[in-house]
Amino acid sequence: MWSPIIMTSSLQGEASIIGRNLARLAFDILGNYGDVNNSNVNVFREVLNINEEAISLLTSTIRNSTSLCLLFGGETTVTVNGKGRGGRNQEMVLAFSLETEKLSEQFNGDGEISFLSGGTDGIDGPTDAAGALTYFICREGQVQLQTDDARKEGLDPEKFLKDNDSYNYFSQLSEGKYLLKPGHTGTNVMDIQMVYIHKY
């Protein structure tokens, strides 16, 4: 059973930086599961705008649940330096995915992390997608990463991120199955991020 926790409703900042920090937070929690006192959760309070109440709830919940769903809301930005196509949610997920690849090299344990970021209006930037999702799985030393799938398909995730081309990256990766495409929703209550953490 998943235990949901609202971490903040005012997430803001550069999408790629937020994505990387969300990945670090997820790995910190998974790596110190059941002993939040040894984690660095408080380090992320300022950059992710997490309030004290959310930290307390996380600390108590993690003692009784092996499956967490951390909920974030807000609106981030993208400084466009490249010539690609994408939106802040897709860029955030790509940055999260790349940071996951880096952090997985030092991870010891079993568990999984999934991350989804999407615009509640159904549109992310000048694209027909609302956002995207990525994942990390480690079981008995066997690691599964979305970036590994991308490289096997001849895609260079870093190059796509540098060119602000997250939409084309996710469109090409696994025939676009990681893109969220609900269409126009007729509502707009900012963006939503969901970080799923499960300890085996």
From TrEMBL:
Residues 68-191 form the MOFRL domain. The keyword Zinc does not apply. Gene3D superfamilies: MOFRL domain. One of its GO terms (molecular function) is glycerate kinase activity. It comes from the Eukaryota. One of its GO terms (cellular component) is cytoplasm. Keywords: Kinase, Transferase. Pfam families: MOFRL. PANTHER family: GLYCERATE KINASE. This is Glycerate kinase.
